[in-house]
Amino acid sequence: MKRIKSATASLFASALLVAVAMPAQAAGFPDKPIEMTVLFGGSAQTTAQVLANLMAKQLSQPVVAVSRTGGGGAIGYTYVHGTKPDGYNIVWNSNSISTSHYRGNMKIGYKDFTPIARISLEVPAVAVNADSGWKTLEDMVKGAKKSGKPLKVGISGFGSFTHLTSAALFKRLGLHVIYVPYGEGRAPAELLGHRVDVAVQWPNQFVGEAKAGKLNILCVTSAERIALLPETPACSEAGAKGLDITMWRGLAAPAGTPPEVIAKLQAAAKAAVASPDFQKAGESLGFAPAYLPAKDFGNEIKNDDAEISQLMTSLNLAKKK
To answer: Which CATH entry fits the domain spanning 18-121+248-314: 3.40.50.2000, 3.90.79.10, 3.40.190.150, 3.40.50.2300?
Structure first.
């Protein structure tokens, strides 16, 4: 009996020590560099570096953006999921947490991560070679139907966010297409080289060539026009009624990360997003700073996951179970 009491007392003491240690650990957080895993290159990598530098100023510790690309984000998500939930390994996440999961690239999903904050919103744009003569989405639809040939549509990769966006768009337009994956940042070159007829990608990739008269940007996939392209219509107003697809980017940590640690990371992220440097980066890179705290961000991820699951299933992009 004494042994049982002794063991019980020991367990209670250990639990008490853990309960006391967790806030103490959070109080000293961070006391070493934080690693931010970046899932994609291009503007995602550039934005992550800007964010990391600004958060480092708030946290008084380096925040190191480390590229772990591949598998539509699966490689990076899997790595961070396998790290200790202490706040020293976070991921620059996006809707890809759901697209990669339902595509079958990884078993883990959004529930395996704790949201920290939403950081920004990005809207894909639809562009064509100016040589095509297509200046509007309606021109493209008429031209494609008249030719009787399937459109070659450039995307970042099969199962990627741009693939999902493209599939939703062209299903609404009733066009037969062939998807052609290319490397990140290759959209303008693929269009100019006539290897694809249409490309769906981030607007900043197209702006320079559009200003030079080499590409025509037909529409953007959000419900409304965006600040970077105020003269370019939303696809929904240009003929693809009801289309509203936007990518969010934010930060998350492995599930189980202490709330006190999440709160410190969230505060640093909020200050970074509100800074003039981040606002300026948004203007040059084509994203909209759009901070949301952890709780609201978590609700958005949950709702978005359900919508992506339904959309990918309806478009036959989800892995068959």
So the answer is: 3.40.190.150
